[in-house]
Amino acid sequence: MCRLLGITNFNYLKHQKIINNFCDLARTGTVLAGDSPGHEDGWGLAFYDNGKLVVHKSGLNILDEQEPVLDILEKAGDSPIMILHLRKSAWSNTTSTRHAHPFDYENRVFAHNGTVYDYKGLLKDITIPGLREDALDTEVFFLHFLSSDVADLGSAFLKTVALIKNTHSYSALNCLFSDGEKMYAYRDFSKEPDYYSLFKTQSENSVIIASQPLSSSLLWKQMDKEEFYVITA
Asked: Which helix (H) or strand (E) holds 26?
C-alpha cells in the first residue's frame, strides 16, 4: 500500500514542485478506509545517470529526509526516467531500507502499490541468483518476470501478471518499472479502485504518472483497469 511517481525526461528545476507535492503524500496521501493516515514506512528513489541506474532508499519517513532527497535530485539535474516511491507497509515489522521500494537488478528497477498475498507460490519460478529468504511480495513479483524466458521486458511482465491474476490472490498490481530506455506503468486491482489509482498527464516533453494528481495546473487522466502504458524516454 504505497504512493508512486514516475517522470520521463525529468528535470529538477521543472519538476521540483511535483516532487515536493508528492513528498507531502507521506502525510496527506489517500489511504484505505480504516487505515491510519500517512505513507511513512520508507521511501525510494531511482534515476538514470548516463544510462546507469542510481537507486537511493531509506526505511524512514521521507518528510524527515526531504532535504537530502531534494539534494540528490538537484545534483542529478536531468534524467530520462525518475521513479519515486512512498511505502505504507502491508507486512508487519518490515519497515526498513531493505524492504523499501524500488527494487533493482541489472539496470532495471521496479516499484509497486498493492499486495500479492500468496506471493510465495511464485518463488519456484525465480532463477535470478541471490534471492534472500526475507523477500516480500514486490521483490518476488519483480524477480519473477525478470526470470521469464520471454526476452521483451514488457511481455515478460504481462506474462507474470496473467499468472498472478489467474492463480494468486492480490489487492492490486499497480506499478512503475524501467530499463532506462522506457518507463512502464500498469494499473490493476481487485478492490478499492479509489485507493489503487494511477493518473497520467503530460507537461511539455515529460509524461508524469502518479497515484494521485499532484498539480491543479495539469490535466490528469486516470488510467483504466488493466491499462499497460509504455513511454519511451
From this structure: helix 12-28
Q: Which domain holds residue 211?
A: 2-232
Q: What is the CATH number of the domain that holds 33?
A: 3.60.20.10
Q: What is the mean pLDDT of each run of 10 residues along the chain (233 residues)?
A: 94 97 94 84 97 97 96 96 94 89 97 97 95 95 97 98 98 98 98 95 97 97 98 93
Total domain count, the chain: 1
pTM of the model: 0.96
Task: Retrieve residue 84's grid coordinates.
Answer: 519515486
Name the residue among 207, 213, 205 with its Cα closest to residue 178. 207
Pairing of strands 78-87, 52-58: unpaired
Contact at 8 Å (CB) between 101 and 85?
A: yes
